[in-house]
Design goal:
Layout: H1 2-25, H2 31-40, H3 44-60, H4 63-76, H5 81-90, H6 96-105, H7 109-118, H8 123-140, H9 145-158, E1 165-168, H10 175-184, H11 192-200, E2 205-211, E3 221-228, H12 236-239, E4 253-261, H13 272-286, E5 292-295, E6 297-298, H14 302-310, H15 319-326, H16 336-349, H17 360-367, E7 371-376, H18 383-389, E8 393-397, H19 403-413, H20 420-430
Parallel strand pairs: 4-5
Antiparallel strand pairs: 1-2, 2-3, 3-4, 6-8, 7-8
Helix pairs in contact: 1-3, 2-3, 5-6, 7-9, 8-9, 16-20
Length: about 425
């Protein structure tokens, strides 16, 4: 609406006009001290100017100074102790109103600080980038995890499905968005504009992305789709620029061959399950003849897991496969039959401590209700594919009639939905 844009522009001008004065008067002030002032400020305009200045300072700081600022914020911006103690003293079990008061009193002041930052025009994207820095620092300083929890809690409400917009990306999409797609592709590198054009412009290709109103030109996650006649066994023919194109109406299979999360700062905020389900609906609406929806997915943890297993006396890999794997030289892959067995064993028997498949791609798709359907050797000859899995890839099948039951079973008990092919491979692999 025009009045909404007017108000937004007004605040942007106010924040900009106040920045020069604030920058001169507070140039030497510690940004964390200014954070305390920000939460005490009652003037909306002054708070806006101050919040923008603090964000500028944090972004311009050295990594060491920014890490120190994060540590102070985590330590100094906990709950208001007086308010919390009062809420605790008045809490009576079963009193819903008292429970709510306790809930809000226990909220760390750091969350109010992040909300104050987000009032600055364009700040949402800046906060996402700032959290990416925080995540890197948290690896070496676990005390920062509490501050990251605040970011994650707020982002989970700011980036809910109701705010997300699904867009199809094609060759008519603005160039700045297309440039972002090239930059963010994380599975199969896009080698320039010609490569991008065949992925978004060819009639048998689709690309869909989620966007947020606060970041309208910056995709959050996107999926690339190939329309084919059959379920693919390798990525090469899909990426081949000289492949035979088929008319969309001739396709029977939709292949999700690349899903890329675009922002490290949104790690832990789930978009992929919503994306796949909505894209399936979009494709079905446009092409009713599509009968099968599958992925062609990498197995990124396979070789690392095999290496760790081979260092142990007792493990999941039986003697027969251990012998075959121990005889490999350099980067030579196992023979196709062995590789398919090892892949099936890894995906079905290697579990994370919290439950579910150890492999991150498997955990994602199985958690969405997919079926682990096929395993392929010699499927990805790229340097990354060979380094991660000796070139192995798999298909996860999305069967509408089973998605919800599969999801519930995996979430509740860790049971993996398997095709008869994978079940047989895993059983064969487990034999000594």
């Amino acid at each position: 609406m025009p009045e909404t844009r007017f108000i937004s522009d007004m605040f942007r001008r106010l924040a900009g006009s106040g920045l020069g004065v604030l920058g001169r008067t507070r140039a030497g002030e510690d940004p964390v001290d200014m954070c305390h002032s920000l939460l005490d400020t009652r003037s909306e305009v002054s708070g806006l100017v101050l919040a923008r200045h603090i964000l500028d300072r944090l972004e311009q700081a050295t990594p060491e100074d920014r890490r120190a600022a994060f540590a102070r914020i985590a330590a100094e911006f906990g709950p208001d102790e007086t308010r919390l103690q009062h809420a605790l003293s008045t809490y009576v079990p079963g009193d819903v109103a008292a429970a709510r008061r306790l809930h809000f009193a226990a909220e760390p002041r750091s969350q109010g600080l992040i909300r104050a930052f987000n009032r600055v025009p364009g700040a949402t994207a800046r906060l996402v980038r700032l959290r990416a820095e925080l995540l890197r620092d948290t690896r070496s300083d676990p005390a920062l995890a509490s501050l990251d929890q605040d970011f994650r809690h707020l982002f989970a409400s700011w980036f809910t499905r109701g705010f997300l917009e699904l867009r199809r990306i094609d060759w008519r999409t603005p160039a700045n968005v297309l440039e972002n797609i090239i930059t963010y592709e994380a599975v199969h590198e896009i080698r320039g504009w010609d490569d991008l054009r065949q992925r978004v412009g060819d009639p048998d290709r689709r690309l869909f992305a989620f966007f947020h109103p606060a970041m309208p030109d910056d995709p959050l996650i996107f999926v690339e789709i190939a329309l084919t006649r059959d379920i693919p066994k390798a990525i090469g023919p899909i990426l081949d620029r000289d492949r035979d194109r088929i008319p969309p109406e001739k396709a029977r299979v939709a292949v999700f061959y690349s899903i890329s999360n675009c922002h490290v700062g949104l790690r832990g905020i789930s978009f992929g399950n919503f994306l796949i389900k909505q894209v399936v609906e979009e494709l079905r609406r446009d092409m009713e003849q599509l009968a099968t929806f599958v992925t062609l997915s990498p197995v990124p943890g396979l070789r690392r897991w095999v290496g760790e297993e081979m260092q142990t006396e007792e493990g999941l890999i039986p003697k027969r496969l251990r012998k075959a794997l121990s005889e490999l030289e350099g980067d030579t892959p196992p023979d196709p039959a062995t590789l398919r067995e090892v892949t099936a064993l890894y995906l079905t028997r290697a579990h994370r401590a919290s439950g579910g498949a150890l492999d991150p791609v498997a955990h994602f798709h199985l958690g969405n209700g997919a079926i682990l359907a096929h395993a392929h050797a010699e499927a990805d000859a790229s340097p990354r594919g060979m380094a991660n899995s000796w070139g192995a890839m798999v298909n996860y099948l999305y069967d509408d009639s089973r998605i919800e039951a599969n999801h519930q079973s995996y979430a509740n008990t860790g049971d993996i939905a398997l095709s008869s092919e994978i079940r047989a491979l895993a059983a064969q692999a487990a034999k000594g």
